[in-house]
Amino acid sequence: MSELLSKIHAAIFYDEPIEDLVPLDLTGTSEEDRRSIYYLYAKYGRDPDRRIICSRKLEEVRNAAG
User: Fold this and answer.
1) What is the number of domains present in the chain?
2) Rounded to whole angstroms, how far apart are CA atoms 10 and 60?
3) Which domain holds residue 33?
4) What is the DSSP letter of 55?
């Protein structure tokens, strides 16, 4: 697990917002980390528009994986 995901998990555990932790651009992030970040934000993020985007991105990644 990457350091970023560890921070996100900790923030979720302590019921803190994750908006400032999750970057808007995930370029350079591994596919596995991106999938996890999309899932976590879709479930625990507080920005409704961004949650929708992450849900769609997660679905795209799942469909691409087969």
Assistant:
1) 1
2) 26
3) 3-65
4) H
